[in-house]
Design goal:
It is a single chain. By secondary structure, the protein is mainly alpha-helical. It has a domain of about 80 residues. Helices cover about 70% and strands about 0% of the residues. This is VanZ-like domain-containing protein. It comes from Bowdeniella nasicola.
Length: about 130
């Protein structure tokens, strides 16, 4: 059950439209260029976070389901393999399908690091029982 929740959270977080999509959908394109719109509250809040802190979110989004799947006793090859495939696939989807988002190779690296850390934590926890 925890594994399913972790996967659902991962898919929701990685599939949410980005801030550019909301801005584009809410306002028609002007005929003439105009000054940039002031940033939304969400964007202002994100600017308070240190640069690169989104990578920690990527690590967590892949470590949690990997760890939960291994602790649930699922086949390690299936759990780790699916996460290794999901890492680049989600970034590709963000770049091509999800509105207002873009794929990033550094995000793929953070995702893969999350898989490795989740698998390591799952292995350590499995030995401890």
């Amino acid at each position: 059950m925890i594994y399913a929740g972790a996967l659902a959270a991962q898919l929701v977080a990685l599939g949410l439209p980005g801030p550019r999509a909301a801005r584009q959908a809410s306002q028609p394109r002007p005929a003439l260029p105009r000054p940039a719109d002031p940033p939304s509250r969400r964007v202002k809040l994100l600017r308070l976070a240190p640069a690169g802190s989104d990578k920690l979110v990527h690590v967590a989004l892949f470590a949690a389901p990997t760890f939960a799947g291994l602790r649930a006793g699922l086949d390690p090859l299936l759990v780790v393999g699916s996460q290794l495939i999901a890492a680049p696939a989600t970034e590709l989807a963000q770049d091509t399908v999800v509105a207002g988002r873009g794929g990033n190779i550094r995000d793929v690296g953070a995702d893969l690091l999350g898989v490795v850390l989740g698998a390591a934590a799952g292995a350590i926890a499995g030995r401890a029982k």
